[in-house]
Fold these 2 entries.
Entry 1:
Amino acid sequence: MKHRIHLAVVTCSLCALTSGGWAREVVAEKEEPEQKAEKALPFVTSYKLSPDLFLNGSKVVSAFSDAEEVALSSTVKFFKEGRVFILGTAISGDGYVVTKASEFEDGLPFEVETLKGERFDAELIDVDKDEDIALVKMPGGKVSPVEWTSSKETSHGTWVTSAGVRGEHLAVGIISANRREIPRRGGVLGVLLDPHDDDKELGVGISAVRPDSPADKVGLLKGDLITGIGEKKIKNRRQIGRVIERHDPGETIELTIVRGEENLTVFATLAYRSFVFDPLDRNQRMSGSTSIRKAGFSEVLQSDLPLPPEAMGTAMLDLDGKALGLNIAMSDRVTTFALPSELVERVIADLMPAKE
Amino acid sequence: MMRRFHWLRFSPFGVLFSVIWLAAGSPVLAEGKVEVEKHTHALEKDFPESKADLIAIQKTMLDVLDQAKAATVGIVSKGSGSGVIISPDGYVLTAGHVSGEPDADVTIVTTNGEHLEATSLGNIVFADAGLVKINGDGPFPYVEMGEPGQANPGDWCFVLGHPGGIDEDRGVVLRIGRVIRRRTTTIQTDCKLIGGDSGGPLFNMAGEVIGINSRISMGLDDNYHVTIRAFKRYWEKMRESQLVRIPRTYVVRNGGYLGVNKVAHARGVSLTVIVGDSPAEHAGLRSGDVITHVNDEPVEGTFDFSRKVGSRKPNEVVKFTFEREGDVQERMIELGTHPASS
């Protein structure tokens, strides 16, 4: 899950929600030329573009040199258990950094490293759970802060760039869609429910339990009946969806279960929807590893920056190296969300401890 | 023209390829219209050398983007895909696997959210080219198709589409990139695609459609589009709602046949599709296998592989060496005859 597969070999036709046989039949790429027919298509080929000339190839990226300097001097890497799990952006000269808050929810100890390789202890000062921004202080760490600029002038096609995979290389792309809200998604239990039980008064049967889901962790089994959540009696599937949806990922709910003759009570801590259900989604499977939290932002700018989920927390820069926003979620292989600079600055002002 | 020779330096196969290309492609090029654009100097460079070049590229795209967006549509058939209107009376290019069976009812969703009734026409299955006609005469906002054979590696391009389905708040989604490679019916670019983009347009910087989004592999640079050549070549058949499953080229194939589709791989070719009831399937080859050697000769790309297989006779037993999940394996496989030639 943690490594993005860049050169895997699965070819896949693209029809979303494919049904029937079409998609299976259309993947062919048949243009071998060697035996020309009288009426054959003229054989036309061209050799492959050298990778350094791709959009994200080294030669193209070098045109973003102004931004590169800023990206490389303002980005920090967060380590836990010996690996980079997220990046961050310096916002002051005295060691304050912003990053993606939900990546810190496991509470594990972490360290910060500058791109020059200096490592510092750091402290999580505060988080804004709504917008998924964390403020971190790294005492002693000297990193150049980014300069925020208005995001209002951006539109489809505006060039953007960010520190890339491990912070060292730039990723480049453009603003690709309308600025908008990404509505909140509630937590999930990770069960599929039996549609046949909707009319029964007893509760709702579990038809499958997703591996590693909250339901799996508390030992729920296929065939269990969910009869209550908290104080609420459960009679149909829609009710379960509605009740659970109100809770955020990370919240714990009490479930009343009937298993055969037994009555059980379990406490399940809800997970992010994407953590549990992305493996069932073809577009997500074609995207490799993506951000676990990718919804619930009051406003985002969308880009096609090719960044892995570990490279969130970086500033999304314009061609001058000014920060238009903070990359906050790699949603799929064509979609990266950034919180606009105005929103980030407002959150920072709220999170910053008052000056003495 | 300069660029083509530039590529010669990059590939050991360049000389061979370019000879064939010249023979077949030049007449088309000579007839094709050459767009002289305001910002072409930046577009003609092998790569942008400065911020000014980047801005010039962006401006060129923005000049044509509004029209491109207006002509790009969502298509709801069995699934959800994209398409592009290429005539004022409402012909819509899309992927074959989006338009599906000819003469079916589909719904077109325009950029401003209008839902229009439409009918699927022909489908060139092997190329994944499909055609849809909006019911009614229009006029509809449209874009021009480019001339076949004009998209070359290094050309700047952009795609539009509805990844993951139509989302009115998000709108149509733009991605920029460059042409990586062009074959007869397929263009590869690094304009990143995903499910739902299928059928959406690939544009050159003059705002002409040069491809239709078709398929991807896991790599971010593995985005494949149907060429305009495929559409123009089969235009009449598509308008007449015909279904074309096998290209004519194959009728005269009389060499050895394995029954695989493949893409180039650093160590040979990587199999993407195993044709049902083919020698490859009977021998147990699988999608994902990387064939490195044919009769102990190293495989250098798809062209070389096809030559190595096609130059042998049907019923000849050939040794294939391949990598599967880190293991190297060998199979002796008796080649067959191409289904279309028997």
Entry 2:
Amino acid sequence: MSDDQKPRRYHDLGGIPGGPIEISDHVLLPWEKRVDIMRGLLGDKKRRIMRADVMRHTIETMGEDKYKSLTYYELWMEAVRRVVVEAGIVSEDEIEARIAEVRQRLGLGEGS
Amino acid sequence: MSGRFAVGDAVIVKAEYPKTGHIRTPYYVRGLSGVVADALGPFPNPESLGVGGDGLPEQTLYRIRFKQTDTWPDYGEDPCDTVDIEIYEHWLEPANGT
């Protein structure tokens, strides 16, 4: 469908067979709702840090491996993480330190 | 602000394949001919918003109607079927001779 003269980006999937579609109802998990809210707040009129198009562009540039392996809200979360780090709101170190803290509190060990 | 095209105009979607940027024109309609089904007014340009810009100048958004038989070469359903795609003005050119 695509060739060297007409490169297709990995996220532009219209027309490519995609396999069976999961159509059962899916209850959003609390973390998914939180990611949704965070993105909304980062993009609101007061902040304008991460509008919907910035999130889409971030997902479209994080690489095909991530795009194809992460779930819907995992992609959102990865995009939020990248944008807030880029904007200097929090650092990677702060995020990792917080993850370690929470893992310890929940007795989950070191993990990754 | 009124757009360059009117309802009923025949247009062609630019056959461009940028490797970077936030592009909202679907791959599968680039280069195809269609007809303006509706003019939806000006909106901030998502290609600018996507990279942190202000979206200006705004671009008129159109609903372009394509024949399914043009869109999918092996389309086997009703040949009268169409598909509407919303496309920004800077991705459209007038179709000459129609």
